Structure formats: C-alpha cells, structure tokens
Amino acid sequence: MDATRPEGIVAAELAGAFACARGLLSNLLDLFGLEARRAGLMLVLMLACGVIGAVLIVAAWMGLLAALVLWAVALGVEWQAALGAVALANLAAALALFWLCARVSRMLAFPATRRELRPKRLELV
Fold first, then answer.
1. Could you tell me which of 65, 85, 89 has the C-alpha nearest to residue 77?
2. Which stretch of DSSP H or E encloses residue 5?
3. Structural domain spans, the chain
4. Which DSSP string do the residues of 14-53 spell out, in sequence order?
5. How confident is the model over 13-37, as a mean pLDDT?
6. Looking at beta carbons, which pairs linking 75-78 to residues 24 or more positions away fall under 8 Å?
7. Angle between helix 79-104 and 6-74 (nearest 10)
8. Radius of gyration of the chain measured on its C-alpha atoms
9. 86, 68 in Cβ contact below 8 A?
C-alpha cells in the first residue's frame, strides 16, 4: 500500500495506535506484577510482625500473671489458691472473648445486604 493514499495513512495510523495501546498495556501489566510482588512481601512482613508481636504479648501476659501470683503469696495467700484464682480469671476472660467473637461473627454474613437483596413480597392493599 502506498502511504500517501488515504487508505495507507489510515492503516498506518491504526497500526501505530495499536502499537501504542499494546505498549501501554504491557507497561501496566509490568507495573501490576511489581506491585503484586511488593504487596505479597509486605503481607509476609505483616504476618511475621503479627506473630512476633503475639508471642511477645503472651510472654508479657504470663509475666504479669506470675507477678500477680507472687504478690498474692507475699500477702499470705497459699500459692495453690493464688495460681488457681489467676487460672480461673484467665479462663473467664478467654471465654468472654470467645463469646464476643461468636456474637460479632453474625455480622460477617452481610445481613443488611442480604435483606436488601432478598425479593420483596408484594402486598395488596
């Protein structure tokens, strides 16, 4: 085809436009891949920090409970009773947290959205 003819000019412009679009899409996919890799690494870092933080919190909690037992023993409470009381208080707190999780988990089913999407009954007046 002759580039000076109108058909040749249109074909050349279309080919250039498709090449630009293909290049833009390639660049966007490269960017998406790099950001996905970065997001994956950040997720691993966040999980590792969360696990380490949880271990440190558990260690601090155990130290606090041990100090509480030693304080109660220093006040004259038998060590078995002090240890039992701390264990029962810890168990009660854990049960309260599990109850709260079970109660709040009902909201994970998107109840308001499901209620809105459910077909409405036609009421005849």
1. 85
2. none
3. 6-117
4. HHHHHHHHHHHHHHHHHHHHHHHHHHHHHHHHHHHHHHHH
5. 92
6. none
7. 150
8. 33
9. yes
Residue 84's Cβ-side half-sphere holds a number of Cα atoms within 13 Å equal to 5
In this prediction the pTM is 0.61
Say how far apart CA 56 and CA 45 lie, in whole Å.
Answer: 16
Among 71, 95, 92, 97, residue whose Cα is nearest residue 83: 71
pLDDT tens digits along 57-92 = 999 999 999 999 999 999 999 999 999 999 999 999
CA distance 83 to 61: 14
65: how many CB neighbours lie within 10 A of its CB?
Answer: 16
Both tokens assigned to 3: 């580039």
Q: Are 73 and 81 in contact (CB under 8 A)?
A: no
